[in-house]
Amino acid sequence: MNKAELVASMAEKSGLTKKDAEAALNAFMKSVEEALAKGDKVQLVGFGTFDVRERKERQGRNPRNPEQVIEIPASKAPVFKAGKALKDMVNA
């Protein structure tokens, strides 16, 4: 499902227009992005949790020259952990 299909599904289920559903989806995504950028966790009970994980600095291999070892710097990565209700729905 792409964004347009998600907006259409949201509009159908909520009774909103597609324009309003897209505005709601964009506001949700922007709110999650801003919270994660501040280092906060976004928890939706039953659905899941959006969080930021720290990745340690590590060594890797240069794909063009496998003998060459390169340093991969530490970084932060957004992650999503599905909640129990979502897992149960998917596995049903």
TrEMBL record:
PROSITE patterns: HISTONE_LIKE (PS00045). It comes from the Bacteria. Pfam families: Bac_DNA_binding (PF00216). CDD domains: HU (cd13831). GO terms for biological process: chromosome condensation; DNA replication initiation; gene expression. GO terms for molecular function: DNA binding; identical protein binding; structural constituent of chromatin. Keywords: DNA condensation, DNA-binding. InterPro entries: Hist_DNA-bd, Histone-like_DNA-bd_CS, IHF-like_DNA-bd_dom_sf. One of its GO terms (cellular component) is cytosol. Belongs to the bacterial histone-like protein family. This is DNA-binding protein HU. The lineage of its organism: Bacteria, Bacillati, Bacillota, Clostridia, Peptostreptococcales.
